[in-house]
Amino acid sequence: MAKCEICDKSVNYGNKLSITRSHISKRTSRTFKPNLRTVKTMVNGQPKKIKVCAKCLRAGKVSKI
Protein backbone atom coordinates (compact mmCIF):
# COMPACT_ATOMS: atom_id res chain seq x y z
CA MET A 1 0.00 0.00 0.00
CA ALA A 2 1.30 3.46 -0.89
CA LYS A 3 2.02 5.30 2.36
CA CYS A 4 4.46 7.99 3.50
CA GLU A 5 6.59 6.76 6.41
CA ILE A 6 6.88 10.28 7.90
CA CYS A 7 3.35 11.74 7.84
CA ASP A 8 1.34 8.52 7.15
CA LYS A 9 -0.28 10.05 4.06
CA SER A 10 -1.98 7.28 2.07
CA VAL A 11 -4.52 6.70 -0.70
CA ASN A 12 -7.73 8.77 -0.59
CA TYR A 13 -10.95 8.06 -2.45
CA GLY A 14 -13.30 10.47 -4.18
CA ASN A 15 -15.46 11.06 -7.23
CA LYS A 16 -14.48 11.83 -10.81
CA LEU A 17 -17.08 14.20 -12.23
CA SER A 18 -18.12 14.29 -15.87
CA ILE A 19 -19.26 17.83 -16.66
CA THR A 20 -21.41 18.32 -19.74
CA ARG A 21 -23.23 21.57 -20.54
CA SER A 22 -22.74 22.92 -17.01
CA HIS A 23 -24.42 19.86 -15.46
CA ILE A 24 -22.73 17.04 -13.65
CA SER A 25 -24.02 14.02 -15.49
CA LYS A 26 -21.95 11.10 -14.22
CA ARG A 27 -19.91 10.33 -11.14
CA THR A 28 -17.38 7.54 -11.03
CA SER A 29 -15.06 6.64 -8.19
CA ARG A 30 -11.33 7.33 -8.36
CA THR A 31 -8.28 7.21 -6.13
CA PHE A 32 -5.92 10.01 -5.15
CA LYS A 33 -2.43 8.58 -4.59
CA PRO A 34 0.35 10.40 -2.70
CA ASN A 35 3.43 11.57 -4.60
CA LEU A 36 5.94 9.14 -3.04
CA ARG A 37 9.70 9.15 -3.54
CA THR A 38 12.18 6.52 -2.39
CA VAL A 39 14.90 8.33 -0.43
CA LYS A 40 18.07 7.02 1.15
CA THR A 41 18.38 8.54 4.64
CA MET A 42 19.88 7.86 8.06
CA VAL A 43 17.59 5.95 10.44
CA ASN A 44 19.04 5.15 13.89
CA GLY A 45 22.57 5.81 12.59
CA GLN A 46 22.28 3.42 9.65
CA PRO A 47 21.45 4.23 6.02
CA LYS A 48 18.02 3.01 4.96
CA LYS A 49 15.67 3.52 1.99
CA ILE A 50 12.24 4.83 2.97
CA LYS A 51 9.20 6.02 1.02
CA VAL A 52 8.49 9.72 1.63
CA CYS A 53 5.91 12.03 0.04
CA ALA A 54 7.15 15.05 -1.90
CA LYS A 55 5.55 17.44 0.61
CA CYS A 56 7.70 16.07 3.45
CA LEU A 57 10.82 16.30 1.27
CA ARG A 58 10.16 19.96 0.42
CA ALA A 59 9.40 20.79 4.08
CA GLY A 60 12.79 19.39 5.13
CA LYS A 61 11.39 16.70 7.44
CA VAL A 62 13.83 14.21 5.88
CA SER A 63 17.49 14.72 5.09
CA LYS A 64 19.03 12.77 2.21
CA ILE A 65 22.44 11.10 2.49
Fold and architecture overview:
With 65 residues, the protein is mainly β. The protein has one domain. Helix content is 9%, strand content 54%. The chain contains one helix and four strands. The strands form two sheets. A two-stranded antiparallel ribbon has the order 1-2. A two-stranded antiparallel sheet has the order 3-4. The two termini are 25 Å apart.
Determine Rg (CA atoms, Å): 17 Å
Discrete helix count: 1
Average per-residue pLDDT, rounded, comes to 91
Main-sheet strand order equals 1-2
Low-confidence stretches: none
Class based on secondary structure composition and strand pairing:
mainly beta
Number of strands: 4
What is the subunit arrangement here?
A: single chain
Proportion of β residues? over 45%
Beginning-to-end CA distance, first to last residue: 25 Å
Instruction: Indicate how many domains the architecture comprises.
Output: 1
- Spell out the helices and strands N to C: EEEEH
Give the overall shape, derived from the CA principal axes.
elongated
Helix content: under 10%
